[in-house]
Amino acid sequence: MDLESREKAENKVLLLYFLNRVKIPVSNMQLTRIMLENRYMNYFLLQQSVHEMIQDKLINSETRDNIDYYTMSAEGERMMSMFLDLVPVGVRVRLDENIDIIRSVMRLETSIIAEYTLENENEYEVKCRIIEDFKPLIDIRLSVGSRDDARSICNNWKAHAKEIYPEVIGVLLGKDKENTPEEAE
Q: What pTM does this model have?
C-alpha cells in the first residue's frame, strides 16, 4: 500500500474509531472542529473521507434541522475492527482519555442553539432553542430591529439558557416567584 493510500485508510479508520467511541450522533461541524483542533487530519482530507465513507455506507448521515449528523454503520463497525491497527496506539489512547470531555462538550453544543437570519433590511429573526435527545424542550423565535440586538440575544441565550428555561416554564405554569400565595391575599 503506498503512503497516500495508507494515510487515507488511516484517516477513515480514525473517523470510525471516533464515532464508535463517542456513541452519539456527531455533526459535520463538530467532527471538523475535533479533528482539526487535535491535528488528526486536515480539513480537505476529512471532508473527502466523510464523503467517501457515506458513499461506501461506512457511516450513516442523517439531516435534522438542516444539520448533517453522522453515526457509524454496521459495515463501518466491521471495517474498523478489521483495520484498527492502522491507527497509531498513541492516537487511540489520547482519544480514549479525552472522549468523555469531548462527548460532554458535544452534547452541550447541540443542546443550546441560538442563531439569527436577516428577514429584510430592518428586521432579523432570532431562533433560540434547547434540544435534549434531538427533541426541542423550548423553541423561541423573535423579531428584532438590528443585527446588534440579534447578536446580543444569541450570546445571552448561549450563556444563560439553562437559567432562562426554568424561569420561562415557571412563569408559564403560573409558579411566578414574585406571586407567592401570601401576596395574593
A: 0.64
Q: How far is residue 69's CA from residue 61's CA, in Å, rounded to a whole number?
A: 6
pLDDT, tens digit (0-9, with 9 covering 90-100), for 150-172: 999 999 998 898 888 888 888 88
Give me the residues paired with residue 132 across strands: 135
Fold assignment, 3-87? Arc Repressor Mutant, subunit A (1.10.10)
Per-residue pLDDT of 31-64, as tens digits, reads 998 999 888 888 999 999 999 999 999 999 998 7
Does residue 15 contact residue 50 with C-beta atoms inside 8 Å?
yes
Q: What are the sequence ranges of the domains in the chain?
A: 3-87, 111-172
> Residues near 10 by Cβ (< 8 Å), separated by ≥ 6?
86, 87
